[in-house]
Amino acid sequence: MKLTDRTILITGGSAGIGLAFAFKFLELGNQVIVTGRRESVLDELKANYPKLHTIQSDVADPAQVAALARRVKAEFPKLDVLMNNAGIMLHKNLKVPAADLDILTANKGTLINVSSGLAFVPLSSAPIYCATKAAVHSYTQSLRFQLEESGVEVIELMPPAIKTALSADLPEGGLVALITTDELLKQTFAAFKKGKLEIRPGQANLLALMRRLAPGFMNRQLWKASKKLVPVGV
């Protein structure tokens, strides 16, 4: 990455990590634009650092994102770096409201979340699907810890590619090995009996292993296998 003479937009750049990068990029001789939700904070930044460009924008609001895109295109036509940094951290009690889990808690039950082996390594032709499955995987881990004293068992099932309508477009053979629903059931129930909390049938276990050993290689191989599935732009 070329680090000088760039026009850089950093979302959530009015504080924290984003602001630290903004200052460093400014120091290197770049034109830097930062966004933030609070106009007062941005005004203070601009007053203290006149070379820094500031725009009020909330990435959680689609209308504001669209307005930001139009403004940047008009005012900074040479923009060539975007740093997606904006984010907030909310601490949440997953046991509240209690009504959501009261039956399972009362009966010391079991909660099963279905994610995917693609939570470990994405199939790049389906970026949103894979991202949501990675989110389910992370969420399930947090849920398991928060519920461990409630008596509720939290299991995550992470299927590989299965012969269903969902995977109808996937090429059989080669890198992607589809298994039947019967085989999925066989391996899953065997894992249930062993008391496993994270169940990775078939290739899902391989994806988990390769994510640790050679993530770059596995990402590239899945991209090669799925590249033809990316819809042609209209």
Give a short synopsis of this structure.
The protein is α/β, with parallel strands linked by helices.
Structure description:
The mean pLDDT is 91. The protein is built from eight helices and seven strands, in the order E-H-E-H-E-H-E-H-E-H-E-H-E-H-H. The two termini are 30 Å apart. The strands form two sheets. It has a four-stranded parallel beta sheet, with helices on one face. Helix 7 packs across helix 8. It is of the alpha/beta class. The chain is globular, with a radius of gyration of 23 Å.
| Assembly form of the protein | single chain
Principal-axes shape call: globular
Distance N to C terminus: 30 Å
Main β-sheet description:
4 strands, parallel
Give me the Rg, rounded.
23 Å
- Strand line-up of the largest beta sheet: 3-2-1-4
Average the pLDDT over all residues and give the rounded result.
Answer: 91
Task: Draw up the topology in text.
Blueprint: E1 7-10, H1 16-27, E2 31-36, H2 39-48, E3 53-56, H3 62-75, E4 81-83, H4 102-106, E5 110-114, H5 127-147, E6 153-157, H6 181-194, E7 198-199, H7 203-213, H8 215-226
Parallel strand pairs: 1-2, 1-4, 2-3, 5-6, 6-7
Helix pairs in contact: 7-8
Notable traits:
234 residues, 7 strands, globular
